[in-house]
Amino acid sequence: MRTLCLARHGEASGALTPAGREQARLLGQRLAGKRVDGVFHSPVQRAAETAALVSAALPDVPVTVSPLVGDYLPYAPTAAELAPEFAPVALAHVADFTTLQHETGPGLAERALAEFTAPVPRVDLLITHSQIVTWFVRAALGAPAARWLGVNAANAALTVIQYRQGWPPNLVVFNDQSHLPDSLRWTGFPAERTAAW
Ligand SMILES: O=C(O)[C@H](O)COP(=O)(O)O
Questions:
Q1: In a mutational test of the pocket of ligand 1, which residue from 6, 126, 130 has the highest number of ligand atoms less than 8 Å from its CB?
Q2: Which residues form ligand 1's pocket by a CB distance below 6 Å?
Q3: What is the pLDDT of residues 28-48, one digit of tens each?
Q4: Within a domain: residue 197?
Q5: 140-177 pLDDT per residue, tens
Q6: Which Pfam families would you find in this protein's record (predicted)?
Q7: DSSP per residue, 59-126
Q8: Whose CA is nearest to atom 11 of ligand 1?
Q9: Best mutation site among 71, 137, 189 for ligand 1 pocket (most ligand atoms within 8 Å of CB)
Q10: Which end of the chain is more exposed for a tag (fewer CB within 10 A), N or C?
């Protein structure tokens, strides 16, 4: 069985903020002592810094920088694939990605699924970006490609998906922030979705 742990980087403004650094440290503490065979992180600074802080709690676990978990656009939907009232918001978000992110994203997104969801006996931790966490979640649930949109990941939240041969992927936890104090939860998340939680 493959266990994939996914985490969005800590709160950042270019580099990690002090809060983001603390989130990353606490994520490391959460994972310390658990089996992790490899850490893979986005080349982007905020993810690399998060990976360094998390990895400090995971001695002897190899750390690899991987474009497969980088900051790319996994899939660009057409308006027809989106709910009518959501479409303008979603398409504006998609338009914010660069030409390079548009061009390289779909290929990277497919390769990422092939690389990290094969049901080999491993536990891997991916430190990545919101849209990549939600890309894996939508794929695990068999949702349409466009459905990475309309789902959000909080900074340093933990999502765990297990892959077993012949079984549907099992979304074990999503956006778990139990390792963070209230003051460090839900950063990077749309404010209108967090108030009640
Ligand atoms: O989806 C986005 O808005 C960004 O491209 C990446 O998200 P991040 O804040 O998780 O890096």
A1: 130
A2: 8, 71, 129-131, 188
A3: 999 999 999 999 999 999 999
A4: no
A5: 999 999 999 999 999 999 999 999 999 999 999 999 99
A6: His_Phos_1 (PF00300)
A7: TT--EEE-GGGSS-------GGGS-TTTHHHHHHHHHTS-HHHHHHHHHHHHHHHHHH-S--S-EEEE
A8: 129
A9: 71
A10: C
